Amino acid sequence: MSFSYELIGELKKSAGLSTDKEASEVIPKMTPGALGDIKKGKRHLTEEQALFIAHECELNTEWVLVHLAEETAKSEEAKQVWHKFGKKLNKSVTAAILALFVVFGGFGLNQGLEPDFT
């Protein structure tokens, strides 16, 4: 399954859509035929469409665009470069989330508890 169609699946799930036709009506500049071609792997989402889905599903826009670039790259070398960049981006995002958890992880966990000084 292509990354473009996986994104469409995320939109359907997030927006409570049950059919590809419904998804094609929501995605900018999308027709049912174009969505069918994406499902078959003959087409890809445009950047505008991918960004729309990213915003609707609250996905990281950089992550979405890197994976779309990997999917649409013409040469195998370009696909590999985008793939490596995507891995680095994933590691950076994971590290940032971990850092936030470490910094703020205990915040609020002990609210309402009083220290026992006896």
From TrEMBL:
InterPro entries on file: Vibrio_phage_VSK_Orf152
Superkingdom to which the source organism belongs: Bacteria
Keyword Transmembrane helix: yes
Ranges annotated as spanning the membrane: 93-113
Protein name as annotated: DUF3693 domain-containing protein
Keyword annotations of the record: Membrane, Transmembrane, Transmembrane helix
Family matches, as Pfam families: DUF3693
